[in-house]
Design brief:
The protein is mostly helical. The protein contains 33 helices and no strands. The radius of gyration is 29 Å and the shape is flat.
């Protein structure tokens, strides 16, 4: 499967010669190649299935054209717009099941009219409404117009909740031309307040204005809230002047968290909803010290420990220092824990020297930087747990494992080997096998007994192939 993803036919051929070619293996490889448009690999796998040389393989994969794996391959090629692969699979007898047919409408977002026409010609386009909705979302007016001519009654049968999708989606994407066409067509011409809200959220003032002037659905407080969050002050001002829905405290909270000081100030001057502690908490977490200062000097809501915790987590030391001097909320142990996990050693050191909250074993468990690990080991007493090894195995951090081993921190978990295999970290698996063979053996038994042995089987096959190759070299 990994070889098929890479697009290298030679790698696929090599893997197929050394791997047990079950129908499942074949199906996953075929789907992976089709998903990425690797036609040469798709052709080779299909031919291998039919070849007389691979009788066992052909028997295992017999009838795959109609199985879930075959459906998945064709569906993946369609969804990703690989028309050459689609044509080959359809011509070779591959089919779609109902599950894959329902997913196909998403490919209309790509605007590939040639692909859509091919699918229609081969009777693969059943969910007409879904195709229209997705084409509108992508702003593909040519596809929408083609669908209208081809399926003049295609949108009439869908439920009330879906009749608004096309125009709502087009408005959200700022596709005014599509919105206007749908409105005039009386074909998929309904929308909801979602249309203006999402257009406002994405800063599409031209769409907001047009909907206001030509439609009656209006908007909700979500419109101004999300426009403020996105920093679209021109939209916020327009909504204030022309609409009556207003906003909620989420407007200033979200604008502050996103660092849009001008929007925060405007809302403060022109609206009465105010904000909550989430405003300063979010601004601090995102490192917007100018917003934090302004809120501190102008508003009364303050913040919570989440402000310093979040600033520390993201390495915003200047914000941490400012909060320490000017605010009284402080932080929690999560501040040092998360700073350590994200490798912000300067923040970890500062918190250790200036705050009393300390940390927990989560700090060393989550840390992946050797500098942070060494510093915590030398200056803190909390230590770590088995989670440290599992986390290192998960991300493939051999240096962390070596550090824990060197410091004689014996906290190896039976889960580590399985985590390494599932993540493709064979180097980590080998290291664990060499240093903790009994624990790895227990995990291997668990993998097999619970049916999660695919990664382990692959590893053992690769090891067997490598050993055979080395033996051949030695005897040669």
């Amino acid at each position: 499967e990994l070889a098929a993803v890479s697009g290298r036919l030679d790698a696929v051929q090599w893997a197929c010669a050394r791997t047990e070619l079950t129908a499942d293996v074949f199906g996953r490889a075929l789907a992976a190649a089709a998903d990425r448009g690797h036609l040469a690999i798709v052709r080779w796998l299909h031919a291998r299935q039919k070849s007389s040389e691979g009788e066992a393989f052909a028997a295992a994969a017999a009838g795959l054209t109609g199985t879930h794996a075959g459906c998945r391959a064709l569906g993946a090629a369609i969804t990703n717009g690989h028309l050459d692969v689609v044509r080959f699979l359809v011509d070779s007898g591959y089919q779609l099941d109902e599950t894959e047919r329902r997913r196909l409408s998403r490919s209309a977002r790509r605007g590939d009219l040639e692909l859509l026409q091919y699918l229609h010609a081969n009777e693969l386009t059943r969910d007409v409404a879904g195709w229209i909705d997705n084409a509108a979302a992508g702003g593909h007016l040519r596809v929408v117009e083609w669908a209208y001519k081809t399926f003049p009654s295609g949108s009439g049968s869908r439920g009330a909740s879906r009749r608004c999708n096309a125009m709502d989606n087009a408005a959200r994407g700022g596709h005014l031309e599509v919105v206007q066409w749908l409105h005039a067509s009386h074909w998929a011409s309904e929308c909801s307040a979602f249309a203006m809200d999402r257009a406002a959220e994405n800063g599409h003032l031209d769409v907001v204005r047009w909907l206001h002037e030509h439609r009656s659905e209006g908007s909700t407080t979500r419109g101004m809230d999300t426009a403020a969050s996105g920093g679209h002050l021109h939209v916020v001002r327009w909504l204030q002047a022309h609409r009556s829905e207003g906003c909620t405290t989420l407007a200033m909270d979200a604008a502050a968290a996103s660092g849009h000081l001008a929007v925060v100030q405007w809302l403060h001057d022109h609206r009465s909803e105010g904000c909550s502690t989430a405003a300063m908490d979010g601004a601090a977490t995102s490192g917007h010290l100018d917003v934090v200062r302004w809120l501190h000097n102008t508003r009364t809501e303050g913040c919570t420990t989440a402000a310093m915790d979040g600033a520390a987590m993201n390495g915003h030391l200047e914000v941490v220092k400012w909060l320490h001097v000017h605010r009284t909320e402080g932080c929690s142990r999560a501040a040092m824990n998360m700073a350590a996990a994200n490798g912000h050693i300067d923040v970890v050191k500062w918190l250790h020297a200036n705050r009393s909250e300390g940390c927990s074993t989560n700090a060393m468990d989550g840390a992946n930087s050797l500098d942070v690990l060494q510093w915590l080991h030398d200056h803190r007493t909390e230590g770590c747990t088995r989670v440290a090894v599992v986390d290192a195995a998960r991300v493939g951090n051999i240096e962390k494992l070596l550090f824990l081993r060197e410091k004689r921190i014996e906290v190896v978990s039976d889960r580590a080997a399985g985590v390494a295999l599932r993540g493709g970290s064979f180097e980590i698996f080998q290291w664990l096998q060499a240093n903790y063979p009994h624990r790895v053996e227990r995990e291997a038994v668990d993998l097999v007994s619970t049916g999660r042995s695919g990664a382990l089987a692959l590893f053992l096959q690769l090891e067997s192939a490598r050993s055979s190759a080395e033996a051949g070299v030695a005897t040669g």
